[in-house]
């Protein structure tokens, strides 16, 4: 991991963080993780609105970083097209992927909560150190069977993750790629996921594990950070470009898993 030294002189570093627009899994209140789910119609509208917000506030990125999951890629594409900059250089990395939810992936949050109880559900979903049960080794949805991860050592491909694991894979990418672009004077847009962005905010804001457990990131609302020469935020937690939409989105995240569980088939 390459250390990034502060730039002498010059202005602040500008960083924009954007969680992908609402996905089909968000709409259905299910765990998606590394499953490649599409954006919903609302998610596509959110992505376009994110581009409008950046343009309205003259925060036009010079370079973009996304995960390798389609919902983040499409969000970035729609936002950049809205800005009129679809040609911006973009780098993609699995290190920005959503947290791997193991055997919970594809399952309804409400059903998981009903089956395992509130305590296990809360630990798996919000705690810093606790990972859900792992995906079986032979599961066809494993990243080990996906071409996009062909260049990643098998030992680095998770079968489940805690937020702490996400933090450990995101921070090296911050150092080697994102901070390097900031160091070069570029305005950087990162389009990723709820948990990979929570991990990045934890690093930027110096959050404790207890503090990051209560941090929620809404879909589709850009979060603006101005960083000083030492890459410390001028405003801890950054500033959402649409605070009202962000507050409503955070309320939705907090309510996840509270829908009525579907009836089990008794057969």
From TrEMBL:
<keyword id="KW-0312">Gluconeogenesis</keyword>
<dbReference type="InterPro" id="IPR005952">
    <property type="entry name" value="Phosphogly_mut1"/>
</dbReference>
<dbReference type="InterPro" id="IPR029033">
    <property type="entry name" value="His_PPase_superfam"/>
</dbReference>
<comment type="pathway">
    <text>Carbohydrate degradation; glycolysis; pyruvate from D-glyceraldehyde 3-phosphate: step 3/5.</text>
</comment>
<feature type="binding site">
    <location>
        <begin position="98"/>
        <end position="101"/>
    </location>
    <ligand>
        <name>substrate</name>
    </ligand>
</feature>
<feature type="binding site">
    <location>
        <position position="71"/>
    </location>
    <ligand>
        <name>substrate</name>
    </ligand>
</feature>
<feature type="site" description="Transition state stabilizer">
    <location>
        <position position="193"/>
    </location>
</feature>
<dbReference type="InterPro" id="IPR013078">
    <property type="entry name" value="His_Pase_superF_clade-1"/>
</dbReference>
<feature type="binding site">
    <location>
        <begin position="19"/>
        <end position="26"/>
    </location>
    <ligand>
        <name>substrate</name>
    </ligand>
</feature>
<comment type="similarity">
    <text>Belongs to the phosphoglycerate mutase family. BPG-dependent PGAM subfamily.</text>
</comment>
<feature type="binding site">
    <location>
        <begin position="32"/>
        <end position="33"/>
    </location>
    <ligand>
        <name>substrate</name>
    </ligand>
</feature>
<feature type="binding site">
    <location>
        <begin position="194"/>
        <end position="195"/>
    </location>
    <ligand>
        <name>substrate</name>
    </ligand>
</feature>
<dbReference type="GO" id="GO:0004619">
    <property type="term" value="F:phosphoglycerate mutase activity"/>
</dbReference>
<feature type="binding site">
    <location>
        <begin position="125"/>
        <end position="126"/>
    </location>
    <ligand>
        <name>substrate</name>
    </ligand>
</feature>
<dbReference type="InterPro" id="IPR001345">
    <property type="entry name" value="PG/BPGM_mutase_AS"/>
</dbReference>
<feature type="active site" description="Proton donor/acceptor">
    <location>
        <position position="98"/>
    </location>
</feature>
<dbReference type="Pfam" id="PF00300">
    <property type="entry name" value="His_Phos_1"/>
</dbReference>
<feature type="active site" description="Tele-phosphohistidine intermediate">
    <location>
        <position position="20"/>
    </location>
</feature>
<protein>
    <recommendedName>
        <fullName>2,3-bisphosphoglycerate-dependent phosphoglycerate mutase</fullName>
        <ecNumber>5.4.2.11</ecNumber>
    </recommendedName>
</protein>
<keyword id="KW-0413">Isomerase</keyword>
<keyword id="KW-0324">Glycolysis</keyword>
<comment type="function">
    <text>Catalyzes the interconversion of 2-phosphoglycerate and 3-phosphoglycerate.</text>
</comment>
């Amino acid at each position: 991991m390459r250390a990034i030294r502060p730039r002498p002189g010059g202005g602040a570093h500008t960083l924009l963080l954007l969680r992908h627009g609402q996905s089909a899994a968000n709409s259905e209140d299910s765990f998606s993780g590394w499953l490649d789910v599409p954006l919903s119609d609302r998610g596509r509208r959110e992505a376009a609105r994110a581009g409008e917000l950046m343009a309205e506030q003259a925060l036009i990125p010079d370079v973009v970083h996304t995960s390798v999951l389609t919902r983040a890629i499409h969000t970035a594409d729609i936002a950049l097209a809205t800005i009129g900059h679809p040609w911006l250089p973009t780098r993609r990395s699995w290190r920005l992927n959503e947290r791997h939810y193991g055997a919970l992936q594809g399952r309804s949050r409400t059903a998981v909560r009903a089956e395992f109880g509130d305590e296990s559900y809360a630990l798996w979903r919000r705690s810093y150190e606790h990972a859900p049960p792992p995906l079986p080794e032979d599961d066809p949805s494993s990243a080990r069977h996906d071409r996009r991860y062909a260049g990643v050592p098998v030992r680095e491909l998770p079968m489940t993750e805690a937020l702490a694991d996400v933090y450990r894979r995101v921070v090296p990418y911050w150092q080697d790629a994102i901070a390097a672009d900031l160091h070069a004077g570029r305005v950087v847009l990162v389009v990723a996921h709820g948990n990979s962005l929570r991990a990045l905010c934890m690093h930027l804001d110096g959050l404790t594990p207890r503090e990051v457990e209560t941090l929620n990131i809404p879909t589709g609302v850009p979060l603006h950070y101005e960083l000083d020469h030492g890459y410390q935020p001028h405003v801890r937690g950054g500033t959402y470009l649409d605070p009202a939409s962000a507050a409503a989105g955070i309320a939705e995240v907090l309510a996840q898993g509270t829908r009525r569980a579907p009836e089990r088939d008794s057969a």
